[in-house]
Every structure is written in structure tokens, then in C-alpha cells.
Amino acid sequence: MLTQPKSFVRAIQGEIQARPCFWLMRQAGRYLPEYRATRAQAKGFVDLCLRPDLATEITLQPIRRYGMDAAILFSDILMIPHGLGQKLEFKEGEGPVLEPVTDAAGIAALEKGLEGSLEKLGPIFETVSRVKAALPLDTALIGFAGAPWTVATYMVEGGGSKDFAKVRLLAARDPALFEKLIDVLVEATTRYLSRQVEAGAEVLQLFDTWAGVLPEDEYQRWAIEPVKEIIAEIRNRHPAIPIIYFPKGSGMLYTHAAAETGADALGIDTAVPLEFAKLLQHQVTVQGNLDPIKLAAGGKAMEESINRILAALAGGRFVFNLGHGVIPQTPPEHVARLAEIVRGWRHRAN
Ligand code: CP3
Q1: What single DSSP character describes residue 219?
Q2: Distance between CA 213 and CA 93 in Å, rounded?
Q3: How remote is the CA of residue 26 from the centroid of ligand 1, in Å?
Q4: Hey, whose CA ends up nearest to atom 11 of ligand 1?
Q5: What are the structural domains, with CATH classification, of the chain?
Q6: What is the per-residue pLDDT across 282-294, written as a single tens digit (0 to 9) for each?
Q7: Is-above-0.85 flag for pTM?
Q8: pLDDT over threshold 50, residue 30
Q9: CA distances to 4, 78, 232, 301, 325 from 82, in Å
Q10: Cβ < 6 Å from ligand 1: which residues?
């Protein structure tokens, strides 16, 4: 039987739709009581990501409540360093803690880890297959990974950072060495995402949360180039797979990301002016960009912001989303209201 691609897949590929598709970054997570209950059954966050029964359940939770057009695999961008053998822990209230990579020996050890990495992450591909089989007919499954630059920031800093001094100094003092780390990540990410596609992912997203800390010249080398390589190689293996790139904080360089990476769609952050987003729509599909704080606050201000975004962007290539992830303080009923507004929207040509 010939079936039409799912609405969300067509939206990412550039189809303009009467009612825009939507999903939310971090749509599964701590703001949902059912997430907290499921998470309590795992030994820790890494264990949670490697438990297909629990990760499948969590991926489906927001779909059951709100019926987004796409589900995003429940996992984390730091599962690649974990797969490569870097020690990773998520500490309560602290976020991720990694044994920092600082020198050539550390990078060589990670390179050795490439071989066994997919096997270690095997349960994640099992989750992808299970979710795919359980989704409603027109709901697409998004697979994802972190982009090399953003993942490298956590690997070198040993966790989250405010100034990114360690990773930026490593890249500035010894670019050849830092490039080795980036190359390992390009290879690991390409293999990891290809496996997600083979297991059933229908769209991929690359999260580059910290692209915006790079100055223009380094942005090209450390953000754009590795992503371009990953996209080209995945397209080699899976020509039809739509890919979203989210280089948060790119400012005017979004134009460059749209032209250079080969992504079908770009995620835009809350700082991107809607007039600028409209220009980007001539290059790619645009995904974003409601402020997660507005969603958490709710009320009239949230509704006005949603409507303003829809009015500006829903007439072009567009997927509604946030400008960053749902925050834990978000009341679940605000997400229900958002879903109602987006679903009720009809584009009026005038
Ligand atoms: O619903 C979804 O969006 C899918 C699951 C998902 C998670 N993390 C689950 C998660 C996705 C796509 C991510 C991506 C991710 N992880 C990014 C890129 C996007 C972004 O938010 O900028 C980054 C930078 C990470 C790394 C990470 N993971 C940090 C810094 C933290 C701690 C801070 C925080 O928000 O908790 C995590 C933990 C994490 N990843 C949680 C979840 C639901 C919370 C863990 C918990 O339950 O305690």
C-alpha cells in the first residue's frame, strides 16, 4: 500500500500547511507528573535513557496528553560521550557531570571507544522501534543527537559551563587536537543517527545549544563544518531523511547555517525577530520560537505571543515549537492551551 508521508515530515520538507504542525523541545520531562513517576523507577538518568520500557513510556506521555504532530525519542545528547566510554553522571539538582577530556590521551581513548559505542547504546535503538510501533498513524518520530560543538563543550568542561573558557581555550590553543575530538564526534554521531533512522526515526534533529557562544570565524569551523559533514554522510546512507538543525543563539549567522549545512529546517531561539525569521523561510523551514518562560507563565501574554508567531510565520514553511526546552516549572494545563490555540489556527490568505 502506498501511504503519504506523515504531515510533520511534509512540513519539515517545506510543505505549507493550513494548520501548522507543532511539537515542543523537552515535551517529555519534569513538568509532567507521569514523567516523575516513571523516572523514579530507574536507578538514575543514564539508566532511564537505556531502559526501552521506561524510555518508550516517557516518549509517549506528552503525545497521549496533547497529541503533538511529532514525538521526540526520550534520551539525551550526552549518551554519545557515554557510549564512547566517558564517565557520565546526572547529579540531582546539578545537571550532568563528566570526567573532563583535556588532552591527546583522553581523545585517543574516546576514539578507541568508537568501536563499541553503538552496542552500548543499543537499548536506545530498541526504544526507537518500540515508539515507532506505538505511535498514532499521523504522528512522526524524531530521532536526535547533539551537534559536535555542543557535545564537546560538556566533554571538555566536565559538565555545564557559564563562560566555556576551557573548551574555547583548548580550541584556540590547539585547534588540531580539538579537531580530533570533533572528528570522533562527527563519526560517532553519524553512525548513531543512521542507526536511529534504521530503527524507525522519520526526522532527525541536531541540537547545537551552544553554537551562539562562537565568534563568526570559529562558528564556521566548529559548528557549521561538522554538522555539514554529518548531514552529507547521513544523506548518503538515507537520502530521504529530513533533518532539523538547532544552532541556538546564532543571530544573523542563522542565514549562514541555512545556506551551508544542508538542513531542511532550522530551529530558531527566542531572540530571533519574526521579521528575520520570515526571511529565513525563503531558505529553509523555520521551527520555533515561543519563549518557554511565556509558556510557564501562561495567560494572555502567552496567548498573544503564540498568535503573533503564528500570524508571522504560519503562511510560510513552518513548524511551531519553543525557542528552547519546556522548563520544569511549566503547569501542564498551559501546554494544553498552547495545543488548542495552534490546532485551532487556520491560515487566512489576504
Ligand atoms: O523531550 C525531549 O525533548 C527529549 C529528551 C531530551 C532530553 N535532553 C531529556 C532530558 C532531549 C532532546 C535533550 C537534549 C539535551 N540534553 C540538550 C540540548 C537541548 C537543550 O536543552 O539545550 C542538552 C544541552 C542536554 C544536556 C542535559 N541533559 C543537561 C544540561 C541536563 C540537566 C539540566 C536539565 O535540564 O535537567 C540534562 C538532563 C535531562 N535531559 C533531563 C531530561 C528530561 C532532566 C533529567 C531529570 O529528570 O532529572
Answers
A1: I
A2: 24
A3: 7
A4: 76
A5: 7-349 (3.20.20.210)
A6: 999 999 999 999 9
A7: yes
A8: yes
A9: 37, 6, 25, 41, 22
A10: 25-30, 39, 45, 72, 74, 76-78, 90, 95-96, 144, 160, 207, 209, 325
Instruction: Give the pLDDT score at 2.
Output: 54
Task: Write the burial class of residue 155 (CB in 10 Å: 0-12 exposed, 13-18 middle, 19+ buried).
Answer: buried
Contact 334, 296 (CB under 8 A): yes
Residue given cell 516549572 in the structure block? 329
* The predicted structure's pLDDT at residue 297: 98
Distance CA 285, CA 263 (A): 9
CA distance 290 to 136: 26
Question: What contacts 180, CB < 8 A, 6 or more positions away?
Answer: 104, 107, 111
Q: In the predicted model, what is the mean pLDDT of residues 10-32?
A: 97
Give, using CA atoms, the residue closest to atom 31 of ligand 1: 95
Q: How far is the CA of 114 from the centre of ligand 1 (A)?
A: 23
Q: pLDDT tens-digit profile of 31-73?
A: 999 999 999 999 999 999 999 999 999 999 999 999 999 999 9
Extract the C-alpha cell encoding 103.
588532552
Active site residues: 26, 30, 39, 76, 154
DSSP-derived secondary structure for 292-318: HHHHHH-HHHHHHHHHHHHHHHTTSSE
Q: Give the pLDDT confidence score for residue 350 in this predicted structure.
A: 45
